[in-house]
Amino acid sequence: MEQLVWAPGAPCWAKDTLRAFAEAMVVKVDGRTATLSMLGTDGAPCEERQCSLDELLPRDVEQRCVTEMDDLRELNMATVVNNVELLFGQQQKLVPGEGPNTIYSSVGPVLIAMNPFTEMPLYDEAWVRAYHAAGGDHRAGKALGPHCYRTVEEAIARFRVVGHQSVVICGESGAGKTVTNRKMIEYICQIDETCPLASTQGRRTEPDQIAKANVLLEAFGNAKTTRNDNSSRFGKYTKLEFDATRNYKLEGCSVEHYLLERSRIVGAPVNERNYHIFYQLLRSEAASQFGLEGGPESFTYTKQGSAMLGFSDAQDFLQLCDVMEKASFGKAVQHQIFEVVAAVLHLGNIKFLGCKDVSEVDPTTEPVLKNVCLLLGIDPVGLAAAMTTTRIRLPGGVPPVEKHVGVTVGQAQRDTVAKTLYARLFDFIVAKIGEALQGGQTRGFCQQAAPQSAVLGLLDIFGFEDMMFNGFEQLFINLTNERMQHLFNTIMFERELVAYREEGIEAAFQVEESNLACVRLFTSPSGPPGIVRLLSESAMMQSGRDDAAFVQVLNNTFANYPSYKVCDPQAAQRTARAKGMTRAGGREGASLDYRRCFQVRHYAGTVMYTVKGWVPKSIDTLLPHLSEVLVSSTKTHVQCLFEREESNMRATVGEKFCTQLESLAATLEQGETSFIRCIKSNPQMVPGIVNRPLVLEQLLHGGVISALEQRHRGLPERVAYSDFCQEYRGLGSSHAQNSGDKLHCQAQLRSIFGIEAEEGNQFAFGHTKVFMKNHILACLRAIVSLRSQNMAKRLQRRWRLKMGTERIRRVEEAWAKFKLTEQAARNRDIASLPTVARALEDTQQRLGALMQVLAEARHAHGDDVRKIADMLPNELVKQLYGIVESLDIVVDRVSQRKKTAEELLGVRITRAMNIVLGLLDRVAAVVAECQEVADIISNEEREQCLGACATAQTKLQALQATDLPALRQRGPVGADLESTEEEAPLAEADLCPGLGELLEQATQILMVAEEAGHSILAVRRAFRKALVEVQGRQEAALEALEALHEHAQRCVAEGLDGIVETVNVAWQRQADAQEILQMAKDADGYRAAVDAFVTAVSEAEATVERGRTELAQREAEKIERLSLQAELDA
Question: Per the count of CB atoms within 10 A, which of 535, 753, 889, 1013 is most buried?
Fold first, then answer.
């Protein structure tokens, strides 16, 4: 069967490393192997390749890009990612409805939003008006295309059916969730303000307040990360209330937040920043008021991120102050907030002297301590003492004993104070915003809105993260994503299946594998308790199991759990290599200690977590002696931040978070939920580039591909029989209309589409509803619309005939239609093309002559319509429809051809962007190599190489940022838009003259840089040539070491640390040898490192063999104990 399908010449998609899937043609098939002709970016064959038939997917060569991906004719993951790239590569039209919204597409109720990493002309007043005018109307919304505005309108339109609507905005970090959430809130506020029915009477919240509150939260809760310049480091659920008695006008708003990333308060990872407010305040003119001289580089907490470019912090601070004023944060409150932020920054500069058992505040930083205490209104002596001591609780009601602590603990307690201060301040800001948005009222997170209110909730959740080190915060970030993915799967798959079963219809799709086991791995309260419960138990212990001890508990508990993976030395080393980690001295991999690591198989991929200091992070309150100092503040606003310390002493961060998360999930499940999947277009965050493998990975891991396949196989549209008959009764015969609703529905569909469509699963009849494919319902709606339009036209025509105005109206309507077509041609920039220009001119002349006759007739006869009509030549009036229709055909044909040309151009420019990005990566590799051999080459050689690379980078970056976008903006100037496809195939046309020359220049630029590097890297080439034999020994030893993986995992789970350590040592020796090999400078050192590695592997093999014996003995003893217990029980 497959050999028939994959006949020679068949178009297909083939798996490709760089592009996920690439276009190809089958050349021949030999058994299970196909020989393919791979197609280049210009559609021409470029190479032959062999692959398995199982790796091929069918390709529809006629398929053009669509925004509604339910309309794709050939559905598979390759087609989907190609469609997204085709859309993304097009030039965005400025007029709503004139072309696709290039960053948006949809899969049923799921909106897909690509992050363009640049401002898009999709959100101005014209777009707001267009989508608001369309409202929830299906046809009008589809004509405009998918957009976050359409998602809002569809949710509001559903209020009349279900009063609680939610939109979950999800995606990985840097995918654009924050911007999408902001655009939706701004849209809701704009349509409320511009609506003529809007009134402030009885409204608790002004729309502008909501938009300002959103900006304020971003300043205090967002930060620059390596993946996103404005990454939300907390979860946010914005609940907008609409008054059902006032045609669903915006009435109020509340905000709930959860899990602020506390570790970022006291420091940020390399190439990242702390929260925006830190840098904004430090670089503002107000900094000196709080003793913050010297800028971010002068403060311990912010020094790491002080050199980050691309931010206007001082200007942003001025805007923030203005926003705070408008969001009901007066000058006095602003000052109090900035005092606390300044105190947090100063805390980081307090240093300690002493040893591991005793410490004191460094006298040189006592002025800093006094600054902190002045800002917070507390006693410097008391704070210094609290940070350098702890209290030991004694049994029997004996008063606690004070004990000195060492420098390390003192620093940790200082950071705990800073983190708690900022976290409490963030809580206060959110509460203050909520109070302002509720008009002074407060309401709990899950409390019901007023009885006459409808609610639209926008959930902006953290993106799934797999960082260099995944710690405490990443655990809960990914738990949130896992729980929301479970909600998505439940709504998209499981509930669909239930709907089919309840209606007695056989489903043509399979439910996706549930990720519930992974959710329970985190949240299960018992049998066995999940990770969160185990962590809470550790936090409540006097000594607190942490780090390796906690990981051992997890390994013992979950070793055989499907979503959990025990981390052994091999897994740690592989992850370290994949992430490019280094240990002290530059050696690879030691920064991941397998003893402190465990892995979780998430829906979005396997993640390795490192447990370091999770117990103190789990405790949501300060230690009592630290809390007492802050509660004693002379400043009321500081006291208020710590009012709830005593009442929450035993509640952990994890327990609170899980409770909040389940409450949120319950809220979402009660109403209707739609989803927006934000997609990161490329990891470099560069405009105009689509990294197809990355995009495909997000679409797969987000469940989008599965949802599309399910909708394609299933019957996603369903209508109750009574509603069907009410809407489509006019299509059938009177006999069918007199039967029952179900019989009438069956008769209608079978007569319109035929029994073959029913047998082909195009529609099916349930107990109370009819289930249909998308195109069936779309066709029915089109028939009804067309029938209604025709009936209206017939009535209008009869009335005009009666009144004698038929000829006049025909002339006026033809002229109006001509003007619309003319404007459309101008909007599409085709009016100047000769074919279109001639058609426009000819039509204008012929219609213009009639319009002139009409004007003269009106001048001559005034209001006497019959005499005016008599002056219009009847034969010429009858030709009007054909005249205008001929013009429409020309304009539509050229428009469609231009659209196709723009699609092809977009693909070529996007792929050219990717080529340039690859060239830049190659230049960066030359720079890296040059830096690595800097100690064995002359300064002159080094400068020559780096200079050539700098020149290449400058030119390639200009090509990427300026030249290629200009070509996209210019459009397909090389296309013959007036000929037919048969006369001049667009695929063979030079749509973009100059593109090939630019890419050739780019390649030449790269070659100059690589040649400069090649001349100074002779040492490395000689090294690699001389050590082939030694490298073979290393590879053989590595293969033997990898064979120990399974047994090492069992030893880790069983706690045989001594045996595992020999395996770990072998992996470390492998890392040593690999590092020397990569440096390619020390041949003798490499030989010695390989010898040490081979020896370590031999020792590991012997030790693991002893471990096997011990494990077998343990298993035998276990069986013997069970047997003996069974005999005793008997």
Answer: 535
